[in-house]
Amino acid sequence: MHNERRRSIILWGPPGSGKSLYLTSLVMWLTREPNERPFAVLPASDSAVRWVASRSVPHTEGAALAEPSSAPTDPLFRIYSITETATPAGQRSKLVAELVPSEAAAGERSPTRLAEAVGVILLLPAATMAASAEARDACVSWFTTTLARLPEEIGAAPPAVALPVAVCLTQTDEAPDAVRRDATQWLESFGSETMRALRAHCACFSVFKVSATGRAPRRRDGVEVVVGTPEPRGVLAPIRWILDEASAEVAA
Predict the structure, then answer these.
(1) Please, which pLDDT band fits residue 110 given cuts at 50, 70 and 90?
(2) Domain of 76: which CATH number?
């Protein structure tokens, strides 16, 4: 594989937003999307491998979801673009970005690699926010506080955050009408301040619907089980969008 170093994409979300499950879907369950250039996401260390592998265990009906082990000290993942044919040097993959999950909560120190990032993915758990006003308020507060901490271009007029920001509503498999819902309107349904904050801070943003498993887990034998093989939906879309925005900026 071609190991030329690339800038990072920061994966950020409040506790319970689904960071580990999202990463598990990218590493373990992702299948090729029709008419799309394929990508592969691989852990960059043994501890990251163990962390992702601990998120699910085999079950007679499918995949049982387990609480992940303690996050590794180096939670680093690498995104490779895969080509149909090999280059003259025999390469069929190219490292295009590093995916770095952050555990920084609202008010805590920002991710150390944020200043050099090519984009940010912010996760918000839609089902959790819909089920509890307390959880919704906590997530919205985290979201607006985080947006205010993103690096701004010096001297730029608002919105001064030029970094592409992909907002992902996770747990969308638990909403029966998720396919029909507009992602931006869904986000705004949790509070108009969400979109106001995005528009006030970010010059480049997009909102996505994400399901790491493709269907809502069911309770079996005291554990949450994804019946059959997990089929992630929308998990690559924010990564593709950030990489496309980065490529457009370089071209310009």
Answers:
(1) low
(2) 3.40.50.300
Contact between residue 129 and residue 18 where contact means Cβ atoms under 8 Å apart? no
Find, among 24, 112, 32, the residue nearest to 74 by Cα.
Answer: 112
- Residue 86 tokens read as 């090999």
The boundaries of the domain holding residue 118 are 8-251
Q: Which residues pair with 102 in a beta bridge?
A: 12
Q: Are 210 and 238 in contact (CB under 8 A)?
A: yes
Domain total in the chain: 1
User: For the whole model, what pTM was predicted?
Assistant: 0.91
Inside any domain, residue 3: no
Q: Dump pLDDT digits (tens) for 170-198.
A: 999 999 899 999 999 999 999 999 999 99
CA distance linking residue 70 with residue 54, whole number of Å: 10
Give the Å distances, CA to CA, from 219 to 26, 65, 71, 206.
23, 10, 25, 33
